[in-house]
Amino acid sequence: MRTRSSLVTLGVLALVLTGCSHEAGPTPGPNPGTPGPDALPIKLDALSADACYRSPQTQLPSGCEKYVTEAGGTVGSVHQRAQAGKTVDRPLDAEATALDQAVNAFRGAGCTTVPSPGGACTKALTDIATAITAVKKQVDRQATTG
């Protein structure tokens, strides 16, 4: 009798476990990844509204870390947009490289811990703002000329 009840218990347990395997819940969708080049004008508008863009000379470099991170995250989309046509948009691609270099200069100088404006960090912030302005002009030009 003991063997029979053990077998029944094992059978019930197997059925329960089998039934659960199909009820794991919703499966996650695909990873959305980074925004593509079509979202670039919106991203550039957001960056150009930031105080670190509008007045880089007076900003505390340590307070611009998020802005610089966002600017750095935009570089890939700019390169992607520059290479999206039949031919590479070399001026836009060059502006993406300039933006990347300015972001790297900010990071390389350790600006995320610098509490006062001036020096290499303010220069890097100014260079980032200049590069964003140039990218924005190129992207706006593409929008009007196709």
Explain how this protein is built.
It is a single chain. With 146 residues, the chain is mostly helical. It is built from 6 helices and no strands. Helix 2 (40-48) runs antiparallel to helix 4 (65-82). The N and C termini lie far apart (83 Å).
Number of strands: 0
Mean pLDDT: 82
Summed up, the helix count is: 6
Q: What is the assembly state of the chains in this entry?
A: single chain
Portion of residues in beta strands equals under 5%
The string of secondary-structure elements, in order, is HHHHHH
Into which percent range does the helicity of residues fall? 55-70%
SSE class: mainly alpha
Question: How is the biggest beta sheet arranged?
Answer: none
Overall 3D form: elongated
Unreliable stretches: 29-33
- Terminal residue distance: 83 Å
What would you report as the Rg, rounded to the nearest angstrom? 26 Å
Question: What is the element layout, followed by pairings?
Answer:
Elements: H1 2-20, H2 40-48, H3 51-54, H4 65-82, H5 90-108, H6 119-145
Helix pairs in contact: 2-4, 2-6, 4-5, 5-6
Question: How would you briefly describe this protein structure?
Answer:
The chain is an all-alpha fold and 146 residues long. The protein has helices spanning 2-20, 40-48, 51-54, 65-82, 90-108, 119-145.
